[in-house]
Amino acid sequence: MEIQVCIGSVCHLKGSYEIINKLDELINSNGLEDKFKIKAAFCLGQCVGAVCVKVQDTIYSVQPETVTEFFENVVKKQVM
Amino acid sequence: MYFVDTAHNSLIKYGEELCGDHVELVNVPDGKIMVLSDGLGSGVKANILATMTSKIAATMLREGSSLEETIDTIVHTLPVCSERHLAYSTFTIIKAYHTGRVYVAEFDNPSIFLLRDGKDVPIEKVKKEINGKVIYESTFELDKKSLLVAVSDGVIHAGVGHSLRFGWQWKNVNDYLKDFTGEDITTTTVASSVLDYCQNLYENQAGDDTTVLAVKIREQETINLFTGPPFNPENDYKVIEDILSHDGKIVVCGGTTASIVARTLGEEMEIDLSTMTPDIPPAGKIPRIELVTEGVITINKTISLIRDYMNPEVNRKKAALNLRQNNAAAMLARLLIERCDKLNLWVGQAINPVHQEAGYPMGFNFKMNQIKELAGLIEKLGKEVNLMYI
Question: Which one of A6, A7, A9, A10 would you mutate to disrupt binding with B, by most B Cβ within 10 Å of its Cβ?
Fold first, then answer.
């Protein structure tokens, strides 16, 4: 399953770099590297909710502080 | 019709902050005029003399003045040094035409180097006296395997007082340049290789201002840089068709712009995460597009890389190293410096409302100014730039 993280201008400024690295870390430490693949995407069109993260056609608004929460509540639920 | 490919760069005399050599480039309809001058002494005085000489010469020749008038003006304009009671700056004037024809006027700089296909080419020079100054004029033709190089005496003397007793010397520089006549070698490579060599001979403490100006001709390379979605979304398709119909490579800067291009072309966009850095968003790939990057942040960084590259007061090795990095801004800067003779900037006028919000530092006006700055820098590098607002 793909997780797309927007790296457009606004999202970049609001922390996409950190989010990509943190998500990658969380996926690996939970042994889910076979289930998820992180991809970057240019502008997902929802700049108001930067940083945009897309999972299964739904766009979520994630900040560096909420990555762990997002991982637990959204990402993990995809495979449970 | 060829493109005149030129590059120049300098080492500053060790301990000085300003360069006492100056290169001025101007584009004229039938080619390019380049003036390399070396001001008397070093530091501020030399910098002023060299800058004035090359600016006056380039401007007057561009406006159609004769060599005599130009030299007369320089002689009567330069401020006289209070210690040496002299106003003096050497110069090499090169006019290279799009046909490959070249005219050179030399005054007191080391003789120019002309090489073709790995061998040197003798140049016939005509001696001329203007205002008591002895000028050597020459005219010759360049082809795609030719290399023309002008240097300040800092190159010929490289190593004096360090590794070499008499310096690098003209003949040895000439031999060194024989390896650089290949068609695939850009003038940027020539200029930086020569300066790297000098830097080594000087053991990183240049004893004089050291400048290299390299000239070649080649087929024109065009880059179409498309940034920002068109003002009217209904025009997206038409605009992209229009850009694709132009000659040259296509570069897309901007997330939304890239998505529009991918959609119009019916292609998938891939993003190369290995190029991601904390400062610069990664580069993307779309078939048929040379380079895809994020917009405003990347371009901003590209501008500062090009500015550093052009500024002799910035550590040259560091600037060159930064240009070699694996990130989208360096990739864009490299393309624009090395593989672009003509730049068409297609600037979309659509406004992203989120960019206009308070607290976001890079709104629409910032973007427009940034593009103008980029255009100005690329023009200074001696390339043709066209701005098109869409």
Answer: A9
pLDDT in tens, B294-308: 999 999 999 999 999
Inter-chain CB proximity B284 and A42 less than 8 Å: yes
Helix (H, G, I), strand (E, B) or coil at B271: strand
CATH code of the region A2-78: 3.40.30.10
Average pLDDT, chain B: 91
Structure confidence by residue, pLDDT tens digits, B121-170: 999 999 998 888 889 999 999 999 999 999 999 999 999 888 888 899 99
* Any A CB within 8 A of B229 CB: no
**pTM score, whole prediction:** 0.74
The confidence score (pLDDT) of residue A20 equals 93
**CA–CA distance, B369 with B332 (Å, rounded to integer):** 18
* Structural domains in chain B plus CATH codes: 3-218 (3.60.40.10), 222-389 (no CATH)
Q: What is the pLDDT of residue B155?
A: 96
Is residue A53 within 8 A of residue A39, CB to CB? The reply is no
SS3 B174: helix
Name the residue in chain B with its Cα closest to that of A6.
B255
Question: Residue ranges of the domains in chain A?
Answer: 2-78
Q: B271 CA to chain A: closest CA distance, Å?
A: 6
* Cβ contact B355–A9 (<8 Å): yes
CA distance B312 to B51: 13
Choose the closest CB to A42 out of B278, B294, B352. B294
Virtual torsion, Cα B62, B63, B67, B68, nearest 10 deg: -160
Interface residue of B354, B355, B356, B362 to substitute, partner A, most A CBs within 10 Å: B354
What integer pLDDT is reported at residue B337 of this predicted model? Answer: 92
Contacts with B139 (C-beta within 8 Å, 6 or more apart), sequence order:
B101, B102, B103, B104
